[in-house]
Design a protein that fits this description.
The structure is a homodimer. Chain A is an alpha/beta fold. Chain A has 2 domains: 135 residues, Rossmann fold, CATH 3.40.50; 142 residues, Glucose-6-phosphate isomerase like protein, domain 1 (Rossmann fold, 3-Layer(aba) Sandwich). Chain A has 13 helices and 9 strands. In chain A, helix 7 runs parallel beside helix 12, helix 8 packs across helix 12 and helix 9 runs parallel beside helix 12. The interface between A and B is large, with 72 and 72 residues.
Chain lengths: 304, 304
């Protein structure tokens, strides 16, 4: 697993693009560790509407004006294959990012990425082509992202301690994000799920100030949760984070962000979570790579 | 509060529409109890891209081809006002659904809805105009929705018992939705937050089968959580729910859905959650209407 984590810095320098023409909107289909690439992309790209679909079906507006991108690391995700076939029937412009599988075969405009990793360890390979193909030149930001990620590879003892602290206290993590780190908070949640086999939850400012704040103050059970938020906020959101913590009296730990570009900051926080959840697994004496239950479920479903 | 809950059946028969012309995409801005109207709408409407913004800023693609709809029950939500002003500057076609306030003043195309309720108790007034203005005739479905909601008003003793059971066991709820009930799961989460002052979490099939399932099996702390899922699934999703429960061994309670149209089903589940969270508050001897901390936060922010 550690080898896989250390592979991210190279993934961020991945140079391949997929072909695309003129479109009016983008629909990205992907599940779990593959879908998150679309969600992160949708937070930094806003030149046209982007909808990320994590389901079997796609919205009925999809047509020849739509750029439909299927992301499936294995290429065999049943929801994504189903969504892809529907997009083809609707005449959408299609592309795929995959290491092969069924999608690699059925989509002529497939960008084939290196295989052999856990999908959640291949985020760079799935995210970078979206940025390179659809946004103006961000190669400088991606080089910076690669650098901050490499720094974390070399120095992460503090994260190991934090993760051990969480597990020893038997607390479940709640990660509070804000734009453009909402998807990063969700990525942490899913990495806790898959790597550490821990339930985890995410929320975002300013939305949580309209509802969750009432529970942060006086819910029972909050002593079983550990709250985390990211540094790097500014303006009203920064004040909201401060006031929310003050008013509710929760203990919330700040996760430091590094990098000057948004992409570097996002990847730094993503990778911080990769290590956090990896070390939480080790502290629990659990194999972080193991996803047996997901495999069992796929087998059961394939008989259906 | 009970009076407010019993008002929903009338709200679903609300006849007003807002004006709109030709557009290519929709952006809906709204926070908390107002924003959820946009989220529910975006699950049943898919004739053009819809993005729900719960933040101060809007995506840069917003222009004269965009129908921008601000939803703020009070009309004074700072994020929504900020988003609205940006949409006007970009030349978007604007509309608003509000009981008045600043937005009622600055938006000429405001649909003024009855005031005096908690925003979260006015969901019908905010959702129905979206359906009536933007979708083909759904008046029959809305009448059915009004009927199933009224049935719940008359008979909800079972919900009271379930809510009491949750609170007595000191468990926090995790609501597992699926399309078109993903936003309903989130609505339950926020109603637990605001009405019951309880932390609550939501997730959705099939996405959760790609990550959370690993934690459902072997996370510590799962004994402190109560899992709920909605009936009414079909096909692969139905199988996924069954297999997920079987494989992980979680105890998950099924919430029954009623109604034949999707809109009636959605409103039945919404209202079931309204009663569930109301009764959970009573069991905790907590005033469900109280949102003092949110008011305190607004005051602090207004000084900033």
């Amino acid at each position: 697993m550690l080898d896989e984590l250390k592979n991210l810095k190279e993934q961020l320098l991945f140079q391949e693009k997929f072909e695309q023409g003129y479109f009016k909107n983008i629909v990205i289909a992907g599940m779990g560790g593959s879908g998150i690439a679309g969600s992160i992309f949708s937070e930094i790209y806003d030149e046209s509407p982007v909808e990320v679909v994590s389901d079997y079906t796609i919205p009925s507006y999809v047509n020849s004006d739509t750029l439909f991108i299927a992301i499936s690391y294995s290429g065999n995700t049943e929801e994504t294959i189903s969504a892809y076939r529907e997009a083809e029937r609707r005449g959408a412009q299609t592309a795929a990012i995959t290491s092969g599988g069924t999608i690699g075969k059925i989509c002529r405009n497939s960008l084939i990425i290196p295989g052999g990793l856990q999908p959640r360890s291949a985020l760079g390979y799935m995210l970078v082509p979206l940025i390179s193909s659809l946004m103006h030149d961000h190669s400088k930001d991606l080089r910076e992202a690669s650098k901050v990620v490499e720094n974390l590879d070399m120095m992460n003892d503090r994260i190991k301690e934090e993760a051990a602290g969480l597990v020893k206290a038997k607390k479940l993590p709640v990660i509070m994000g804000f734009k453009p780190f909402k998807s990063v908070a969700y990525r942490w949640q899913t990495q806790f799920n898959e790597n550490s086999k821990l339930l985890a939850f995410s929320a975002s400012f300013p939305e949580l100030d309209h509802n969750q704040i009432m529970a942060l103050e006086s819910s029972y059970g909050k002593e079983n949760l550990a709250f985390y938020y990211f540094s790097g906020s500014s303006g009203k959101v920064r004040e909201r984070i401060k006031f929310t913590i003050d008013l509710t009296g929760i203990e919330a730990k700040q996760i430091p962000v590094e990098g000057s570009s948004r992409i570097a900051q996002i990847m730094h926080l993503v990778h911080y979570g990769d290590y956090f959840t990896y070390y939480a697994a080790l502290e629990r004496k659990i194999e972080p790579r193991d996803v047996t239950t997901i495999e069992k479920l796929k087998k059961l479903l394939s008989q259906f």
